Amino acid sequence: MEIDQSIEITVENVFDRVILIAATGLFALTVILTTLQVIVRQTPFLPSEWFIWTVPAARFLLIIMTYVGGAVVTRNNEHISISLILDWLGQFVPRLRTSLMVVSDAIVIAFLGMALYGTYLSTTGNWRTSVGGISGITSGYIYLGIGLGLLAMLVYEVDDAVEAVQSLLTGDWQTTTDETDDEGGVEDV
Q1: Does some domain include residue 128?
Q2: pLDDT given for residue 97 in this prediction
Q3: Is residue 6, in this structure, part of any structural domain at all?
Q4: Angular region, 171: left φ>0, alpha ψ -120 to 50, beta rest
Q5: Residue 117 has what pLDDT?
Q6: What pLDDT sits at residue 90?
Q7: CA–CA dist 56, 39 (Å, integer)
């Protein structure tokens, strides 16, 4: 079995573009801050107290980037999953496979909804709580970033669930997960 490790990013609308730019920007900023930390620590003549803020800033950006990156992964249906049983069922009872996908999507949507609500409570409850290390940044801002990532995941998951329900209603059932075509790319079956 060959593993497809190509990165095929397609932008279908403005929302996709915003999420991809945000994830890429957060990643780049995290790498820049982490590199700056290493340079300051390894260069004795640079005053490290001027750059002490880079440690918590990189940490907070990494936390937010994780959730925004999770939205990109959700959009591309690239979360880690074991689809062996679903693929086996899809060969014999494709409607059951699609039905289980709808149930799975509903569970994920419910979880994301609860997580988003909890993040909303944390954002409003900690809006003015200082996080230390960086003046002017509060816990509320960090929870807001997490909430925006969760909201993007929810939007993509609802879109996926709608497609699964439509395929269930039209009888256009998916029998297996994405398969590799002859050129090594991913082809939807």
Answers
A1: yes
A2: 83
A3: no
A4: left
A5: 98
A6: 79
A7: 16
Q: What is the largest CA-CA distance in the chain?
A: 69
Determine the 3-state secondary structure of 187 from DSSP: strand
Q: Which DSSP string do the residues of 139-164 spell out, in sequence order?
A: HHHHHHHHHHHHHHHHHHHHHHHHHH
Q: Is residue 1 part of a domain?
A: no
Residue 89 structure tokens: 């069922």
Structurally, the chain folds into a number of domains equal to: 1
Structural domain contains residue 81? yes
Q: Angle at Cα 52 formed by Cα 46 and Cα 57, nearest 5°?
A: 130
Domain that holds residue 130: 14-178
**Which segments in the chain show pLDDT lower than 70?**
1-11, 173-189
Q: What is the pLDDT of residue 126?
A: 92
Token couple for 162: 């709608």
Would you call 10 helix, strand, or coil by DSSP? coil
Calpha distance 154→148 (Å, rounded): 10
Dump pLDDT digits (tens) for 71-112.
999 988 888 777 777 788 778 888 888 888 889 899 999 999
In a 3-state reduction of DSSP, which class is residue 41? helix
Tell me the C-alpha distance between 54 and 111, whole Å: 33
